Amino acid sequence: MAGQQLSLAEAGRKRGNSALWWGLLFTVLGLLSNFLYFVVKAGQRTFPWINLIVPALGLVLLFIGLKRAFGQSQIYRGKIWGSIASALALLLFAGSIWGFFHARAVPRSAGAPQVGQHLPDFTLPDTGGQPVSLAQLLSGIGGPGQPKALLLIFYRGYW
């Protein structure tokens, strides 16, 4: 009699569905990885595909958790909130994919200089704070002959 009551009590308690929690965590971490570009210092490279791989792994875990919740509903719980979390994660993942591929589709600036175009003369401070003009830089290149080339790099700075 005590054995039957224990099995009935165990049957009433459902196990937690850890795949749903891990899937939700990975999906949120994948979405937060989109903001790594704003935190990483200039010059350091990041792995851009991580913005898609981590939420995809989260979706896989969410779908595994849903399969558990619906396939073995007497053992696992999470049908309702797992379905809602999976639907939201799927929408956010689709938005991440769209943003990942369309973020590079920025239109060209009409006023930006093109490759090979001659620049007007300008003066900017160098790393020591001294003003340097484009004409000064071009006159020092190549010695007595024509200047060969000049490469300008503009860093965005830190805020």
Question: What are the main properties of this structure?
Answer:
single chain, 159 residues, mainly alpha, 2 domains, two-stranded antiparallel ribbon, rod-shaped, disordered N terminus
Question: What distance separates the N and C termini?
Answer: 71 Å
Helix content: 40-55%
**Total beta strands:** 2
Assembly type: single chain
Report the major sheet.
2 strands, antiparallel
Number of domains: 2
Helix-strand pattern: HHHHHEEH
Strand content: under 5%
What value does the average pLDDT take? 75
Q: Compute the gyration radius: what is it?
A: 29 Å
- Alpha-beta content class: mainly alpha
Please list the strands of the largest sheet in the order they lie side by side.
1-2
Approximate shape:
rod-shaped
Number of helices: 6
Unreliable stretches (pLDDT < 50, length at least 5) are 1-9
